[in-house]
């Protein structure tokens, strides 16, 4: 554990149960049923992804895909625990978790209705850092490999979780100060946001793909706007992650692991844990919008108990926005191969989110064996505050 000289020694951060699990495979939930067209439509609706190849059957049939195809971002929606399961391993009493970032590698098979993803998970590593908002804070990483029903590797995610002592974050109030007040939008401002949103949607609705030779370093993507975020939009996001729908998954454990960390309590503060036994009768008792660690996303009072100033969005959703944003520009023949996004702060209720990206590199023969264009990306709110930064590599045809 790193020294935190500015933090009082009375703060205890026991990582005994975390240390012994590094490098181990871990268990978790696996969806029971294959992905459906409705699952895909629910996902893109929640992500505010207008691309008609994902929801308009008639448009999709006339496209190169010959039918509905899921966005690459849906892999996390067909996982358990918003993709953070293998990055939240070990018991830490009185803790809570927020997303720190995502790294993705996409290997090729597109996800379509009827496909079924399964996951293999591993707790990768961790470090402890002293942070302004909570004192000693655990940054831990976990890997998830996604396989389809044919055994092909679809993609890999490396998620970073930020685990901290909720009472300390609440006491310091740093996140409340940095978030500022919820904006009050005028009718004119909302109309302008809607126009910008529509402008981005129409910018490549037909899915045209820029050729590798057309793209220049310094080119900028059209700005995307999402929001204003609301309790309704957060709840819609939550339900698009299929595991959050009652009865959709079963617990599984990897073979040969003596303590596989399947559904143990990570040490959530009171009111933020699940009642697994009670949920066998009343499924609300393990439904995060009613009881569990996701309560703060849709309840400002509960959010304050974990140091958040008001209801806030999901890290995994922010990662999906990044992939969808670049995929929209890349068109039907483009393919996002890699992304690495660091989250700096959440999307709060009432805020809007902007995505901007610039071409920063080109490689005709990459390690993937295909032409790649590299983009630098930044996600901000209406005040210019940075929510995320990242790099995305996208395959384009010559």
Quick description:
The protein is of the alpha+beta class and 398 residues long.
Percent in strands: 25-35%
Largest sheet: 10 strands, antiparallel
What share of the residues lie within helices?
10-25%
Low-pLDDT residue intervals, each spanning 5 or more residues: 1-9
Beta-strand segment tally: 12
Number of helices: 9
Rg for CA atoms = 21 Å
Organism: Steroidobacter flavus
Protein name: MaoC family dehydratase N-terminal domain-containing protein
Domain FAS1-like dehydratase: 23-156
Architecture overview:
Pfam families: FAS1_DH_region (PF13452). It comes from Steroidobacter flavus. InterPro entries: FAS1-like_DH_region, HotDog_dom_sf. This is MaoC family dehydratase N-terminal domain-containing protein. With 398 residues, the chain is α+β, with helices and mostly antiparallel strands. The protein is 20% helix and 26% strand. It has nine helices and twelve strands. The strands form two sheets. The protein has a ten-stranded antiparallel sheet. It has a two-stranded antiparallel sheet with strand order 2-8. Helix 2 runs antiparallel to helix 7. The longest helix is centred in the middle third of the chain and has 17 residues. The radius of gyration is 21 Å and the shape is globular.
